[in-house]
Specification:
With about 675 residues, the protein is α/β, with parallel strands linked by helices. It has 20 helices and 31 strands. Helix 6 (about 125-140) crosses helix 7 and helix 8 (about 180-190) crosses helix 9 (about 215-225). It binds adenosine-5'-monophosphate-propyl ester.
Amino acid sequence: MSQKEPAGVSEAAIAVHWQEEAYYHPSTEFIAQANMTDKSIYERFSLDNFPECWKEYADLLDWDQYWHTTLDTSTAPEYKWFVGGKLNASYNCVDRHLGEHKNKAALIYVPEPEDEPHLAITYQELYVRVNEMAALLHDFAGVKAGDRVTIHMPMVPELPVTMLACARLGAIHSVVFGGFSGKACGERISDSGSKVLVTMDAYYRSGRLLEHKSKADEAVKVAANEGVTAEKVLIWQRYPGKYSSDTPPVEGRDFIVNDVIKQYHGQRVEPVSVPAEAPLFLMYTSGTTGRPKGVQHGTGGYLAYTTATSKFVQDIHPNDVYWCMADIGWITGHSYIVYGPLALAATSVIFEGVPTYPDAGRPWRIAEQLDVNIFHTAPTTVRMLRKAGPDEPAKYNYHFKHMTTVGEPIEPEVWKWYYHVVGKGEAAIVDTYWQTETGGFVFTTMPALQGMKPGSAGPAMVGIHPVIYDEDGNEIAAGSGIAGNLCIRNPWPGMLQTIWGDSQRFVSTYFAKYNKNPNSTDWRDWPYFPGDAAVQAADGYFRILGRVDDVINVAGHRLGTKEIESACLLVKEVAEAAVVPVNDEVKGKVPDIYVSLKPGYDASDSIKKAVMQAIDDNIGKIARPAHVYIVSDMPKTRSGKIMRRVLSAISNGTDVGDVTTLANPQVVDEVRGLVQG
Ligand code: PRX
């Protein structure tokens, strides 16, 4: 085995390499109304005009104090954007629209049960709710600027209300995906040092009212064990006035928001004007090693970037009804349900439920009823809806002008179904590549300026200057179609500021591999490495091949294999665990788990169940593996490293390659027999 061959297996290595497709073009009607039809924007955002070009983005916001320095690189690669500027994110998403749009729906909430009415919240109503919640957080829970607040909530309008209330106070929110376990939430409370946890009693999913509050009890316990006390737990009620959890509130610690907020009726809280570089939020995301890391986004840079990309790429106008069917607990929901659309005074739809419940026609009924004209979802959902209800969209009278796909590569066949059947051949599609860390889209076509090519994300976003490197840091020729590691040469306002509390991890994760000089304050020496492999075709379009590290993208959600493996090791019989990504028809990738047992234990279904349970408890159901295989030994190198590449080939039914140099080549046949029969 060569020195450079990774011990594990990357998604990129098992990626599907489909053939190049012909272009599709947006309609003349779309182009005629589009926000961005000016090709010269690429010139304006060329590297020659860096960094001053970003003023164009910043000027989409209202500043309390205008900034004097576009980019400060003195602490590179921890950059500061729009230095000297002051603003408030909640003011920009709410207050500034009151003049022109106060009676317009800011949010439309669609509960999962179809017999519950939709709830439209106007900008005026949002203003009132955000103010009252900000007053409660400040006066009742003692939250002030710079404090962290952990929010563990489902898809309900009280979630963006709570986020915007934090932003109003200059507090830093840390939203944890509702589907994560109490333990995962507790670890995030602990890492961020949050004294307040905001949660909800229950929510609907697939026709059942799920209890949620008990996760808060677990979370507080886990954080306390790590030395962080969540002093107050604030519980929203799914049905205001009725407590829907069988886990009672803890005396002196837990408070029902719907009761307490009555004291703050009519209160207004002046938005706290924070420096542009003040952190707006943390979003924990999985990495190669250790626990999830707190990706830190700043107020001015992030908000400018999400606002501009929402306007230019998603083509949001104030009179559009925009529906992004992601969860606000992930970055897509932060940037493209809450901050971007609201900064543009759009109407943003929030859907509580799952797309296929009670049937695969549900999304299209919602689209018809609300007259949604911009739609945004992930390939995994498109695949699911195509499988469950291929003819459903045609039954409903809705018309999308624009559709987004995000989070994973989309197969050309699936793209074409999205285009012809969901979009009825009328909608422009953007395949947007980005990450929690990038804040907003970094690769995509500009919908009115460039053709769409199924299976390709497209060129880099304006102002994003990409390069593909080989393992040794040599540039791979642009447009050569040769795979390598994707990097971005320059900083941009939406990029993460750092990892919360861990600058070193920030540098080592994203920059160490291709950094040219660790002491440099010149941004040219710090290409950003997102951790994905890619190829660029001769037309300049990029195709993303997948992760090159120990991260698996399951249904568009990032999971660290190390996190899953360490959960498996909590099962007392398990000696070793290895997690590999397997191609899946619907979810893109799913984890397969291989475990070997300590001496004296025999393989049994109860051990497999215990492994599944450990993953549910420590991470959440989204990390559930497709299979748990109990093997007598792992294929290993002579130095004792588990060869995940071999296990992945077996799980995916592909060639395992040369295994003669393994310490124990005989296990390969045994494992293959177990998996493939
Ligand atoms: O591997 C890339 C993949 O998703 C990862 C980022 O995951 P996360 O931070 O959870 O954010 C997901 C939503 C932005 C990337 O490193 N990815 C994202 N978008 C695409 C993609 N892969 C291919 N095509 C995309 N459009």
